[in-house]
Amino acid sequence: MTLDKSRTKITNKVDPTFMKGALAFAKRSEIYADKDASKKPRSIVDVGCGIGGSSRYLSRKYGAECYGITLNPVQAERAQSLAAAQGLANKVIR
Asked: The pTM is what?
């Protein structure tokens, strides 16, 4: 089982409506990107990003710039540190 499939199963158990949100976007974008590279997202806004896990994942997957929004300055600093450690400092912006 791939990480994407296991993540979908887990989130569906937690909140079945979640697939209508972020994972559905990622899945749709993947389908379109396979057919037409111009359909890949170039910038993404991650509202409520926390420490930026989704932003880093989407940035690596699509090469997109991700703008994370969180109200917690400690989480924002941690997100920047993690992005820098993974070579994504120029792609994941707070």
From this structure: 0.63
Based on the domain organization, do 94 and 51 belong to the same domain? yes
Question: Are 69 and 93 within one domain?
Answer: yes
Q: Are residues 34 and 49 in the same domain?
A: no
pLDDT by 10s per residue, the chain, length 94: 455 555 555 444 545 444 455 556 666 666 666 667 777 888 889 899 999 998 998 898 888 899 999 999 999 999 999 999 999 988 877 6
The position carrying tokens 């991650």 is 46
Which residue type, as a one-letter code, is found at position 67? Y
Q: What is the DSSP string of 47-91?
A: ET-TTSHHHHHHHHHH--EEEEE-S-HHHHHHHHHHHHHTT-TTT
CA distance 57 to 55: 5
Kindly state whether residues 6 and 45 are assigned to the same domain: no
